[in-house]
Every structure is written in C-alpha cells, then in structure tokens.
Specification:
Blueprint lengths: L5 H11 L6 H15 L4 E5 L2 E9 L9 E5 L5 E5 L3 E3 L3 H14 L18 E12 L2 E6 L4 E7 L10 E10 L2 E10 L12 E7 L15 H9 L2 E6 L15 H10 L3 H14 L4 H12 L3 H16 L18 H16 L3 H14 L11 H5 L9
Parallel strand pairs: 8-10
Antiparallel strand pairs: 1-2, 1-5, 2-3, 3-4, 6-7, 6-9, 7-8, 9-10, 11-12
Helix pairs in contact: 1-3, 2-3, 5-6, 5-7, 6-7, 7-8, 7-9, 8-9, 9-10
Amino acid sequence: MKKLTRPRLELAVGAVLANAGSDYDEHAAFARVLDQNIPKPSTALLAGTEVQLHGFGFDGNVNRGVTAKITAANGKTYRVAAADVELTCGGSGADYHAVYRHWLGLPAYAQSSRAPAKAKTLETADFLFLALQNAPKLTCLRLATGERVFLRLSGTAVAAPGEILTVDVEAIKDGVIHGRLRNVRLDARALGLTPLALNEAGMWDPQDHYWGEDGDVPEKWEKAQQLWGPRPEFEMEQVIPGADPDNFDSDPIIEAADATAAGRLGLAMRILFDLCAADLRCLDAHAHLGNLWFQHRPALAIRHYEVGVRIGELSLGENFNGLLPWGMIDNRPFLRCLNGYGLCLWRLERFDEAAQVFDRMLWLNPTDNQGVRFIIDEVAGKRPWRDEE
C-alpha cells in the first residue's frame, strides 16, 4: 500500500478541519470523515487481535477523542480509541485513518501487530529518552554506561524527553537496539543532571507589593503572603543550547515557536527534540513540547510539562520558600512548565493536584502574570475544564 507523505498528510488535516471552529468541532469532523470513508463492517486489528469494525463516532469527550465501535472474538461490543485500531482494508479509508493519527502526533500508519513471534530477551535495561530521531527510532542514553544509543521499540511507544524507558532488549542490528517497552517512569534525580543555578536577587517585602485598591478584601492566598513577611527572590539559570546571547535571531526556542505558528509542527518538534538531546535542562523546550500537544492530547502534554517541572525542582530542594518572579526572564521557562502542568491536571480532572500546583505558582510569583488567580476558584470547586477558559 502506497502511503501518504508528510506534506500530503498535513494538507489532508487542513482539509478535514477547514470549517472547524473549536476542539469539539475538530474531533467531530474527523469522526464524520472516518465513518464515511472506512467500510463497515470490516476486519481490523486491536493489539494484534482480529476484531470487526462497525463505525466511528465522537461522544463530546475531547480527552478520549474519536472512538471506534468494534466487536471482539467473544462477541461483545466495545468502544475503543479510534487511533488504537489498525485497519486492514487499505485504500482511502486507511489513508483517512492515517491522517487522523498524524493529527494526534502518532505515526500515521501503525506497524502491523498481528501475531508477532516472541523474541528472546537478551537483557532488561534502562534508557533515558532524549529525542525522536526518525520515527520510530529513538535517541537515548543507556543509563548504566552513559552511552548514547539508538533504540527501536516494537509497537507504539510514546515518551517525553527525560523519561526513563525500561526495555527488554531483543536484538542489536546495524547499531540500533531493538526491544520491547516494559514501562516508562520519571525520576529526575536518577538522571545525573547538574541542577540549574539559583542566583539570589534580593528580598521581596509584601508591604511594598501592590495588592489592589484601598478597601479591597484580600484573597486567602494574598493574606497568607502578607502575614508571612519578607522572602528572598531568586533567578533560575536558563539553558538554551545553540543560542547566541548577542544574536536575538539565533534563539532556537523562537525558531520553534515561529515554526509552530506557521503550521510546521514537524520542524518545531525536531528543533525542540534537538534541544533536549543537547541538554535536558532546557526547560523551555519541555514547555513548548507540552504546548504542541496541549490542545488535543493533554495526557501526553502533561508528561512534557512535568519533566520540566521535576528538572527545575532539582534546584529548589525540599524546603524552598523564596520567590521566582516572572519579571526575571530566566524564571519563565520553569513557570511555564508549572502552568502547563497545572492546566493539564485540571483538564484531566485531577483537581486536588491542580489546586496544589496553582497555589504554589502564586507563592512563587505573587504578581501572577499567568492569571492563576482567575481560575483557582474553578479548580477548587472541581468544575471541569472548558475550552473558553
């Protein structure tokens, strides 16, 4: 089967979403296109097992996305994520399914998972994921030796730079390690990174801070900071590999943002992955990778944001009680990661965790340049995320 090239995939995404005005509309548009163009019923694969496919739909849950109605071998009918179904019909239907997977950021055409022969495991090892080299080849560090290697995993494997992959190694061919993913974890302290420097920048006195007009009733979080008294301010070191401080145009973060704005998401990802591969302490790369997935795949976006948060926390220690003001530019990557992390927690309805993140952001930056004060009541009230937020 001849596969669509990346440019054609991008064009097809634009055609499907031409009249979509919201996240809801985009998912609904893909559900219609898939249901209209993929034969029903037809044979498909789910996790390597043959199933009967009866159609596609969208129930309004943007976190779940488009679903496929399938009948398993036991005769029972299920609703599963459309992206997890592997089509065997070929033709334009398979191409539309590939366009949908591409829009989600997955490999457009899933590799066949039908009845794979079980390979012998040579060893089980931990690899630090750095970057997606050429899908599905991953650039990693073997944690035991610090050696940089290429890794190719069977099946679909999604990871964020900075996560640790435990892999059953099955073969080494042409310098590439082949294996099966056992689990993924995040352990920033195990990465052996030098914490970003934390530079003292004076004292902050709440008495000198603007809390509003006379007569305004302070919020609970404002009152707590006023009662605590003066606290030290710090600026966190910012690392951007390849940036020339004397040449504004050399900033790869800006290049990635420009590529995103132009719809060149593949280029943006390559720039950001390269930054992570050069130095995982580039917190802005983690923040912008999270931004790429935030709208459509918050469950993936949160992983990128959290890596940035945990690496930044290596500099703070357990009892950090100072400020990281937004006005000090180098603090912004860490604060962006925190904000994205908190918003994803809210979208995923992990309300208590989101509330803790937003409280912490207000404590770190009382000027609240990111607008946390406008949403904390929504989160505390456990009200679900809405697009207009």
